[in-house]
Amino acid sequence: MILGLNKEVRVSSMSQWEKLKQLDTKYLEQLHNLYQDENFPMDIREYLAHWIESQDWDKAVTNYSLATIHYQNLLDQINNQYSRFMQDKLFVCQHNFKRYRQNIQAVTGHCHPVDFERHQNVEQKIIALKMSVQACEQELKFLEEQQDEFDFKFKTFKCQESNNSEKQKEEELKVLQNMLNILDNNRKKVLEKFGEFLSEAEMLLSTLVKEELADWKRRQQKACIGAPLNVCLDQLENWFTAYAVCLFQVKRLLKKLEELGEKVTYDKDPFKIKRPILEKHAKILLTNVIKSAFVVENQPCMPLQSKMPLVLRTSSQFAVKARLLVKLSEVGNHLMKVKACIDKNSPNGKGYRKFNILGTYEKAMNMMDSKFGGLCVDFRHLQLKEQKCIIGGKGSNEASLTVTEELHLISFETELVHQELSIKLETCTLPVVVISNASQLLNSWASVVWYNMLCSDLQNITFFSNPPLAPWSQLSEALSWQFSSNTKRHLDPEQLNMLAEKLCGVRENYADCCITWAKFSKENLPNQNFSFWIWLQGILDLIKKCLEDIWNDGNIIGFLSKKRERSLLKHKPTGTFLLRFSESCRDGGITFSWVEHLPNGESKIRSVQPYTKAHLNNISLSEIVRFYKVMADENVPEHPLLYLYPNIPKDEAFGKYYLEPEAGSELQLKYNRYLRTRLIVVSERPPSDVAPGMMDECLQEDFPMPDFMDWIGFDTDS
Question: Cα separation of 710 and 693, whole Å?
Fold first, then answer.
């Protein structure tokens, strides 16, 4: 705002957002609730208030091209604000806006014009349904007026019948008969109008349930295993609510028709035959839409395992949330108690484990846990306890499933009573895996990923009796999600190609490859004592705990074969290096390889032994790269790492991760309070040209890991 403006001008140009912030406390609380999640953060609304309020968002709702332009402009505005934060050195705001941009891109990145057009089609059908209800109501009012006029004239005729001549009676009867014929014809038209409405409503219900709700459930499945998909229920809630409101209104109108029929009836009255059929049809549609509208919004999840939902540990608390997508204010006055239970229709196979739900497993639905006043129930402190099994071995059912392949369903039951309807509602979670020990967590998560990647039957608890093959196109996508959901970087085609090679062997094209469940998570990798899945999860855990910043910035190639590594490095200048993950470390390891060109023109690819979490907890990878030395002739140390592949100077690539001299000195005090030391990594180059702390490209990684102090040295500052 321009400095020097008087107070009146400043107030008149105040944004809507500034006015909202001046509301009373009770309204501010609603404002806070509106911005609870990160779909559209309050920070963006705050800093971009004037730009946001100057856009025509109403037109964007119905115009995909305009919506796309607004979306791109929004990203530009976020970038501009991000740049201002950089100039002002507002580090936290800068970090937040960078994250917001990534989140918004993740949510909208999978939006497609076809989806947009499909949603617009549903919106138009909802509008058409509302207009049909209004038309039915108008027809009914007109019919009521006609009937009142006929009723009045008929009663008048009866009162004056004894005083009228036969000729007058005959003429009046003709008039009444003509009015009755018109009334009968109009009754048929009104019933026809209601019939058309119900047919229209039936087709729309099929679209809502079989297409839109089913699509949301599939998106929720994928989101549970890391897919960056929007699973917000607000749009579906608006559609289901609008649909139900229309049906309830029609139900009331049909009741009004019944009352009209009781006041005036006659032979072959269409109200007697057709109206009950229409009323029954309306009740069926209402029952179906309300039953379908009871869904699990948040799948079961333990608090400390938010990235691994659907894996539950006995005696550990978990949370789950159910929601009714039909938002009716009158329903809030009726106490709807929801009861949770597990394995209501479980297999009776020998050894199939049974569980009890502990904690508050019966709660009333309320509007407190919903942002926009809908009904939901949030179970936050449930636990599972295994029942004692008298017959059969624990976790060894007839299908020979392991504990981590055994699937269970948690279901919820309640009853809705509204406008003379009493509807029993039931919904259930996606299948969960129940474990009793943390060592079973990763294998259980593998089961959750495999199931939700491949299975469209949301209640198929015998899935692992005969698990299907996974096409590489689907599996590669799911593997990438494991990284993008836990970090800010997905796997690129080159990295996925290396993973495909580990699972399928060397091929030119992996598009038609299919991977078995056993190959994915049960069989050990060649010459190793762990599976592909355990190896991959070990690397992901290493990234999250020790390498996240370097990984997010794209400085780790990570997944590539030895052959590919050599082809990338051999023609590069001496000192060009790259970072890749070890193939022999169960719990994750990372190594760097660099190229040297010998005097005879031969190129050598050198690699250090892998660094694990134990090493990186003592010294960061960036500091290792920064100070790594090789002892050359006459014990003269040299720095072999010069350029991060393809050609980025080492300090340019890793400089922002380096510890400042002061911070580094403080850090090293924990190693030695009296000597000024710096922890560095040194490898010796013996005459044979293959150092113990290094390995030639022809050597394998399956060698014993040296003692930490064998290759970590102290460089004493003078």
Answer: 8
* Rg (the chain; Cα; Å): 35
Counting Cα atoms < 13 Å in the Cβ hemisphere of 396 gives 4
| Residue pair 548/483 in contact by the 8 Å Cβ criterion | no
- Distance, in Å, from the CA atom of 546 to the CA atom of 548, rounded to the nearest integer, reads 6
Q: In which element (H, E) is residue 279 found? A: helix 270-292
b/e burial code for range 439-473 (CB count within 10 A of at least 16 → b): ebbbbbbbbbbbbbbbbeebeebebbeebeebbbe
Place of tokens 């229309």: 246
CB burial of residue 38 (10 Å; 0-12, 13-18, 19+): middle
Longest CA–CA span in the chain (Å) reads 140
User: Burial letters for 526-562: b for 16+ Cβ neighbours within 10 Å, e otherwise?
Assistant: eeeeebbbbbbbbbbebbeebbebbbeeebbbbbbeb
Report residue 640 as tokens.
């072999």
Q: Which residue carries 């007697």 as its tokens?
A: 272
Q: Which spans in 428-512 are helix H?
A: 441-454, 472-484, 493-504
309 and 439 in a common domain: yes
Q: Which of 463-472, 659-668, 702-711 has the lowest mean pLDDT?
A: 702-711
DSSP states of 48-104: THHHHHTS-HHHHHH-HHHHHHHHHHHHHHHHHHHHHHHHTT-HHHHHHHHHHHHHH
Q: Which of 23-27, 417-421, 624-628 has the lowest mean pLDDT?
A: 23-27
Query: How crowded is the C-beta side of 470, counted as CA atoms within 13 Å?
Result: 28
pLDDT tops 90 at residue 371: no
Selection from 488, 492, 643 nearest residue 551 by Cα: 488
Output the CA torsion 570→573→579→583 (10° steps). Answer: 20
Half-sphere exposure of 542 (CA within 13 A, CB side): 28
> Which residue in the block uniquely carries the two structure tokens 């007026």?
145
> How wide is the angle at C-alpha 480 spanned by C-alphas 476 and 482, nearest 5°?
120
Its domain, for residue 96, covers: 35-108
Kindly state whether residues 274 and 407 are assigned to the same domain: no
Residues 303 and 435 in one domain: yes
CATH number at residue 496: 1.10.238.10
Residue 378 has pLDDT above 80, yes or no: yes
Answer whether residue 264 is part of any domain.
Answer: yes
Nearest to 589 by CA among 629, 558, 624, 620: 558
Residue 119 amino acid letter? H
pLDDT digit string, tens, across residues 40-71: 788 888 888 888 888 888 777 766 667 777 77
Domain containing 243 — which CATH number?
Answer: 1.20.1050.20
Which tens digit of pLDDT belongs to each residue from 80-113? Answer: 787 788 777 788 887 888 777 777 765 565 556 6
What is the count of structural domains for the chain? 6
Q: If we measure between CA atoms, which residue out of 220, 242, 246, 222 comes closest to residue 233? A: 220
b (16+ CB within 10 A) / e for 359-390 = eebebebeeeebeeebbbbbbeebbbeeeeee
Residue among 15, 194, 215, 27 nearest 112 (CA)? 215
Residues of the chain by 3-state class (helix, strand, coil), percent to 5: 50, 15, 30
Task: Please tell me the total number of residues recorded for the chain in this structure.
Answer: 718
- Look up residue 297 and give its DSSP letter: E
Report the distance separating Cα 629 and Cα 627, nearest Å.
6
Separation CA 85–CA 98 (nearest Å)? 11
